[in-house]
Amino acid sequence: MADNSASSGRLKYEAGFAREVYGMENGSYLKLCMQCGVCAVSCATFKIMDYSPRRLFALVRAGRKEEVMKSNTFWMCTTCLMCKARCPRGIPIVDVMHDLKGLALKQGYVNYPQAAFYQAFWQDLAGRGRIFEGGVTARYFLKRGPKDFGKIMAQKDVGLKMLSHGRLPLRPPKAVKGKKELMQMVAKARELEQKGAN
Amino acid sequence: MRYFFYPGCSMEAGAGSYTKSLEAVARALDIELAEVPDWNCCGATVASSVIGDAPAQVMSLRNLAMVEGSGLDVVVACSSCYMNLALANRRFQNDPRFRALATKSLAAGGMQYRGKVRVRFILEVIANDVGFERIAARVKRPLKGLKVAGYVGCQSVRTIPWEFDDPEQPVALDELIGALGATAVPFPLKARCCGASHTLPQGEITSSSCRDILESAGEARLMVTPCPMCQLNLDAYQSEVNKAYGTNFQIPVLFFTQLMAVAFDLAPSTYGLKANIVAPGPVLAQYGVAV
Amino acid sequence: MVNKSVLVVGAGISGLTAAIEAAETGFEVFLVEKEAYLGGRVARMNQYFPKLCPPNCGLEINFRRIRSEHNLRFLTSAEVVQVAGQEGDFTVAVRQNPRFVNENCTACNKCAEVCPVERSNEFNYDLDKTRAAYLPHSFAFPTRYVIDGKACLGEKCGKCVEACAYEAIELKMQAREVTLKVGAIVWATGWEPYDAGRISAYGFGRFPNVVTNVIMERLASPLGPTGGRIVRPSDGKEVQKVAFVQCAGSRDENHLPFCSSVCCLASLKQATYVLNANPGAQVAVYYIDIRALGKFEDFFAKVQLEPNVTLIKGKPGEILEDGQTGDVIVVAEDQLARKITQERYDLVVLATGMAPSAGAQVPLLGLDDRGFVAPDQVPGIYGAGCVKRPLDVASAVQDATSAALKAIQSTVRRQLNG
Amino acid sequence: MAKKIGVFICTGCSIGEALDTEALARVATKEKKIPLCKKNAFLCGRQGAELIKQDVVAEGLEAVVIAACSPRINYDVFDFGPSTIVERVNLREQVVWSHPADDEDTQAMAEDYLRMGITKAQASELPVPYLAENMVKSILVVGGGLAGLTAANEAALAGYRVVLVEKEPFLGGFAGRMYKSAPSRPPYTDLEDTPVAGLVADVEASPLIEVHTKTTVARIEGGPCLYDVTLEKDGQPSSFRAGAIVVATGARPYDAARLDRLGYGRYANVVTGVALEDMAREGKIQRPADGKPVQNAVFVLCAGSRDPGHLPYCSSSCCVESLKQALYLKEQNPDAGVYVIFKDIRTLGRYEEFYKKVQNEGVIFIKGEVTAVSEDGSRNLSVEFADLLLGERAEAAEVDLVVLATGMVPSTVDYAEQGAEDCPAGNVPTVQQPVLNLAYRQGPELPALNYGFPDSHFICFPYETRRTGIYAAGSVRAPMDLAAATEDATGAAMKAIQCVELTSRGAAVHPRVGDLSYPEFFMQRCTQCKRCTEECPFGAINEDEKANPLPNPTRCRRCGVCMGACPERIISFKNYSVPMIGNMIKAIDVPEEDEEKPRIVVFACENDAYPALDMAGLNHLGYNAWVRVIPVRCLGSMNLVWVADSLSKGIDGILLLGCKHGDDYQCHFIKGSELADIRLSKVAETLGRLQLEPDRVRMVQVNIMDYDKVPGILDDFAERLVEIGPNPYKGF
Lengths: 198, 291, 418, 732
What we know:
heterotetramer, B: alpha/beta, Glutathione S-transferase Yfyf (Class Pi), Chain A, domain 2, Rossmann fold, four-stranded parallel beta sheet, 14 helices, globular, C: alpha/beta, FAD/NAD(P)-binding domain, five-stranded parallel beta sheet, 8 helices
């Protein structure tokens, strides 16, 4: 964890943000957190998280929205399910992280590169119903702009190797035939989910 | 034995040799795999975050709805696809609210699902339906003395019910390695995450995880995995790990189906070892396999 | 006809108490125990919290009470296989497994001296071995030897038969079934330690220096496999640095969703074992909440003041092993210090919780959603002690005393009413 | 008249090989003139036991001396009915298994033990049970709250008559005022109606229960089965006789006025959990200050508990009770913000599942320490606290209600001074509150341990009481919740019933259950020294105005502490007396000084030290063969004259092995071993005056598990005696 210190200001407990999070699809599971701390060290990326999941959840309860949303914690989640498997209260922490990522995307907390990756991935997926890795990569670097230019170069070697071993298809897969219907289903589900949440 | 097979995007693309070797091994074991018609992407780890869990899971259910009438199980070989399909299916079966939502949503695209399909992970099918004894009996080229690290990865093993395998220290893959005549080495991190979802945005995270995993494999000469992302990260990025950490890993990372094909003595052309970036040739040569 | 006798199943501290209390009040009591000795789990404890007194002291009193109590008869190596009937009139089938040693045994040890085979000693949680002919432990009551039918070579060996001057050994002994007619039943089959091997992240079973709290009791006991020396199982090295991991299985939906009630105090107590054995040792206790109810708080406060005891708020996520040294490394978030810690220890003790051992196969026995004996399921059958819910010893004794009265009421109820 | 005694020597279990049993038999036949002495190689076998049985019948034996294994073994085999005295001589564990075979000293030891056993058998008489006129079996229950109602009801269900006394006009007590109770059954998530209303109805309908409300206990005298109880109602006394007593007078909440740090008394919207319960029961929880609705509430746990300045202990029930009350608020207003600030959440056992349920209802739990509570102009409260997990100072603002989970104080005490914020830790000055008004020499109420709770000090025996026949139950005994109080009260009813059953047969209660002997006083020689009345651990002996002891045999626990205390040695049991042990000492054959074979008498507590010696034998741990062990009921029964008897006999040293004393005492007669220690310290001076080294007497605290240390203790003492040299009185 990067942040070990206690801030100097006085923390004001305020229920608004907690309610917002509890209102999300999996957010209400957070109510069950007993602050045991197993998740804090069960995560594949715990060493680089701003806050451990446990601490993030304590901040949610305390109503500290800015700190929560600006933290890298949920973006670091790799969906490896370890925390979910271990959580003694059965909290699907991974799914909560999905919700927090979703909230961040929706509300514009998108500074981390992962945000761009998620957006790029979804755009590529939505266009075809299947993923084209080349497409995702291109979209991602477009979104990130010049600041990630160095990274493209760094990936070059690996890319060439993959290409030479036939691991990097140059052409996108065929689109799903029922793509239109698929997207109708998704739209309906999003609509129903919105209704259900409110 | 007949199943529907859900390949998913990776197995269609970068992990083509996984699909290829799986099909070869299946043929050898008289397993018939029929591709799920007009399947769509499961959403990987991304869709849930962008559009929400329920809509993402509806996408997965569409794939199951495609084959429900057949009465066949759907076998998945990609960890991430398996996780998404299985969890969506489980939620559909157990959460009445989601079931209603999903039913309506599928109907909006003209489809219907009743929750009858079983979603199965390839390794579990091999363990339970085929059985390691039958595998061992099919082995023509016992891989005696070969020390193999069975890297299960994270998502599949923690989606499968506990009763099948331990979610943190799974043993099924090790048993399979044993059935092929090879030796599974102790491998504490065999179910640790490789960090796949960070490969593109923050590759250094993936490299760090991969280094730990490669190190944990100890004296293994070879690693096998049932996950396309894991294979890609550990194989294609192994040189990046060596670059970043000054290490000198040279561990070929195979799909477990490729190793099965080797032990079954199938024609090398059928299981795509050429796609492997860290060359398995030197290790396999002593078993008479020409790559 | 209302039967005025009471059957008590299980002779741990709860069953012993229920049986003796009922018998001393004047009721006929049958006490059935599946092990070859009475005393159950507490007989395997080194000391009780908070007084740090030996359980054998109280057991000795209870055994003396049994010796002088004509109303009480007990059967060891026996299990209930069938219960039928109703309050005031139960018929119970009990299977008594062969001990292969009869009442003639004088506990002279000659059979063990000549016995050529060894068996794993489950009394010490398999940390050592005994001969196939053995006394379950030094304080075993009744003080009679047993032959482990699985390990014994049988009549083809027969050395013990020759060695025994008292014709006490019957290698042909068969299981026998006994039918008891009783008016009420007290079910006190206790608990078993949760299988710590199921908590993969903690490495029990993979790492020799990760042990459980019940094993720690044996390591600390002068009667235990190490004669009371607290050492690492991997290399027998005396421990310098020990971690206790609380809620290893308890308060966990993947394992036991309830709190096991005693582990906090048990670990604090075991911290004193470590410090007594080696005053320079360092002890850390990783916890979620310290649950020292009532006056147990005093004990908690006392141990907390020990300079070599550190309490760390944070449940460890996992335990690793240094394969070279056998050291075990506890990975946890120290929540009060707000940092991730990876500490190296000689020994990690998992505070594994209590799983009920009610025996789900017994007809008429009503169990609840977690496998505990449910309240008021069958009139005339009462749970007592940890088979009902996790309890400390004193509370289990209280509960057993109350169960004895409930059982007595069952035997008089119909007389009063009719 | 000499009684007919038979001596039976077992030669099995290597006794025959290790000892010269012929010589041993001659001790009985020649020296002790016992005509009937038989040997058998397997005395505990069917034929061996039959042999004894036949002789008992044929020869009319009144006592049998069995020289074989420890009395802790084969107790059932060597039981020849209530009219035959059995004396066991422990040749196996304490002689041949712990000493070398074919050895002069081992042989001498065995012979001494046989002499001592025969002497004891000669001095023993069959006890005659104490039975008085008008013994009754009804139970008095003091207190009509949950525990009292339960005890009364449970006793009645077993067929016993009960008199229930409650000082308030109504039954129900503290729990009766609750709105709901915490879950007591699976799935442990739902609030329940309290069991009190149903219990009150059952109790009032029971033909076996007599209820007295607005009544107090004015006086209790007598003992089990013979309690003469005087009640007082509206100044009018009434009396009756009871057999045993359950005290269930409950607890009172800790005085919140002492918690002004938390705003209580200053701000009307700071209330106690009890007040919240009242509001909930009346149907509406609102701000007491202005009747406005409650939108935000903060529960402060451990308000007074776990606090060295107030109640150092944990009050056990507050966590679960506060969780329950948090649900009241959520029930009334699901959108209410409810915060619980805690040190540790103590939801033991299946309450954990209730904790989860309460979390799921949206109650927010914070590990923290409240530092201040303040109020603004609109009477909103602000709670400041240290948020321990976020490591920050925090505040909950706009709070409508602060609920203090005050702890509990037993009803048997009250605090001496009100309002003091800084009472010393654990020693808050208390005054005893009259509940029982016992006419006992040692005081009118149940003795308490720390904090005024009259609980038991024993883990194995939580109902072990220092006032025989009187059992405390419920929150008066220890802090506990409703479910625990119900079980506790049922158990206490059981013990009360057991007490009347045993007492009415003349038998002792725990721990010497069934013992029919009791102390008899030879009053003519009493000097009114008061030691017996003061030292009896159970307050069994009263005093008349001239300080003559007035024993109450049904209160007696048969430990013999009075016998040990009496300088005039006027107190004896039929089968345990000062002269009996004295004669056993005298029966020891003490070698001449020049033989350089010292002799040591060891008085060993029969519950711990004696079994520890057996264990040493079982494990074949050798120790000095100069010791002669005499088991005693309790070291507290050790009379100093035995030291004199030993020394004048020429014994070189006396060792006492007894239980641990002090705060964590293990003596089941409370202070027996401690009294022995005190008596021994007095003896040291006397020894000095007699030119004897004080080191010749020693006391060591051992427990049953010290069997591996006991040989060392004995050997050390023997070595010390060698250094000191022989007892100069030897041969006098």
